[in-house]
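Hey team,

Sharing the histidine kinase run so nobody has to redo it. Sequence (512 residues) first:
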Amino acid sequence: MFETVLRRFGGTRHAIGRFLIVCMVVGFLALLAAGVAAVLTVVRTERHTEMVNHTYVVKLAIDRARTLVEQGETARRGYLLTGDKAYRDNYVIAARVTPREIDRINDLTADNPNQVRNIGNLRMLVSDLIEQRERTIADTDAGRRDAAIATFTAEKNARRMFRIREILSRMSAEESRLLTIRNGEQRAGINAFYVTLSVAALLLLVVATFSLATVLQYTRDLNASQERLRDFADSLEEQVAERTAELTRANEEVQRFAYIVSHDLRSPLVNVMGFTAELESATATIRDLIDRVDAAAPGVATEDDRLAAREDLPEAIGFIRTSTQKMDRLINAILKLSREGRRTIMPDRLDIAAMGRTIRASVQHLLDERGAEMIVEDPVPAIVNDRLAVEQILSNVIENAIKYLSPDRPGRIVLRGHVEGSRAIFDIEDNGRGIAPSDHTRIFDLFRRSGQQDQPGEGIGLAHVRALAYRLGGTIDVESELGTGSTFRITLPLTYVDPQSGQPANKENEKP
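Structure output:
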């Protein structure tokens, strides 16, 4: 399928470049859509949160008004029956606060016609009730308690109180209805965001797959070219130089593509991570709201609401964060390969035996942990090449050998070397797990690993080593069998030759 797509774009490097640009544009649009959806979801979530909070404030105000009416009636009856001034004081407080609380409810529900009608009826009933209460209180204050009790007994107070309770219950039910509608709208908005995010993630996955496939295709092409170059190495020095130059140019092209892909993908990835953090913050707000709802009105929030706020949303955000972190590590790996390819080569005379002993000292603690040993078999030929690149090649291969030693026998790693013509051959041999023949080429591909995946890593180490070896004018391959160990063979020129000028670098050091 990938080759078919490339053929539709023309199959040339420029066409593939256009294809990668199209992929990046699609990826950017997908991330932009996800970002817009995230912003809209956050805004809508905040608005719904405010509306839900408002609904709870109204419900609490209604409950307080109901409590004040009941407290006033209880205090009045206590005063009529006992004449205790404490009851009268409680009644006065309730009678004074009740109209203010009704006014507050009126202000909070002014935009709801149903509640406005209920408030009008409630205000009239409460006013009549307070007027009747005042007459009985006044009779009691004047010492006419019998008359006050007779008035209280004769009035249709029970019917009035029933109507007041009925109105307050209707008002509370109206707010519960609004709360259900608003919660449904909020869930619908979040579901729409998840759909948008899923589509964007799918598009990003497709873009990343095709982009990485392009890089891997170029890497495989380079590997095939290098294999052909090695066939002619012994007899055709001029052809070797020509093929090396071609590989260098192609490698630079791959590095350029890798930089474009990784650099342009990083910016939208940062946006996704940022919006994920915002969504996580919004989720915390929703979770706090559910906690407050459970504390204030345990029956309002359903179990589905609690699961969505406390488990489903955090779990989904965790999956998004894990995926973006993995993608960030992969992009960093591509950037590392790209930057290494652009670094200036600084040739120097290198004592490979001394370098091997230095590496051994740096990993001695790992060798001790695994009960293994590393041997540098002298003599090892010296070369003129880039110190940092050669150290990275040897360190990576040696560390891999330590990592994949077999637990069934004492580990042993040997570094040896010899000269063949104008090239130095370095073998790093171990008695570890070994590599299946079908994976001998695969392990040098980017993000590809072989065998049991019980060791940390992203599958870039040997791809990086191969890229470095190619850049230094060399090669790397492996001979291995499962269960017996592996031998990585690194071939480098005795003296580094600049592929642009075709001249050996550092004339004074070219003979090691």
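The beta strands are 347-350, 373-376, 383-386, 412-420, 423-430, 475-481, 485-493.

Ping me if you want the raw files.
A.
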